[in-house]
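Annex B.
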Amino acid sequence: PADPDFLRVSDLHAGYGQARVLQGLDFSVARGEVCAVLGPNGAGKTTTLRALCGMVRGRGSVTLDGTQLLGRSPEQAARLGVAHVPEGRGTFSDLTVEENLRVGAHLRTGVLRRGRSERAAVAADLERVYGHFPRLRQRARQTAGSLSGGEQQMLAIGRALMLRPALLLLDEPSLGLAPLVTRELFEIVRAVNEEERTTVVVVEQNAQLALDIAHRAHVLEAGRLVLSGPAAQIREDGQVAEVYLGVS
Ligand code: ATP
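ABC transporter ATP-binding protein: predicted structure tokens.
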């Protein structure tokens, strides 16, 4: 693919105080690709995403289209095009669906601009997001707190898309969702990737699901990558399925 090192992670170390979680990660994500990060509980998947979006401090190098991301605040990372959808979603439950989406747009511009061109841009982005998530359009005036779990996850992803991200980071989007809703959600992520060419890094416990939409995958164990390859190859590796993906 063109631009194979769009996201380049080199010798990434990160942790919390004394706890050293990531012990030197090296991987690249090509522009426009979906990359899955798999692995058992506590392997460091969430920490990896946090290091990419400025939520934990890292050592080494993480570049996006050549720009260094390490050492940036989450706000700076967002302005550089990194949108993070954390586990547990983090939408504002008392705000309506549309208000939540508008918050996403303000994160992009950094200020509450009220000019005509900004209003038009936000309206276009809302249309884009509603196009991907028809359910959110139906519920635009409902509070986020009144949505189902699946719809809240859609809202969290929709809000991230309001940033027009260059890089979308998804942490366990399937968590707590029924299989049918999860499938719908993943199909939407696939469509966003295909239609907008958004580069995606998705962390998932449900490896089968993630491998269905990913182009490449990395298996993380105890803070180190133990396996990397095309998603199809990882899916077909019987030993991998048994040992790392919890499938027998
Ligand atoms: P899970 O699927 O369980 O979330 P994970 O692969 O995402 O697993 P991380 O959440 O990155 O793993 O956690 C890696 C290690 O870091 C774990 O041992 C965890 O206990 C520890 N850890 C995570 N967050 C913190 C924190 N805020 N402070 C201290 N230690 C943490």
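The two ends are 33 Å apart (CA to CA). The pocket of adenosine-5'-triphosphate is lined by residues 16, 19, 21, 39, 41-47, 205 (CB under 6 Å). Further annotation is deferred to the next reporting cycle.
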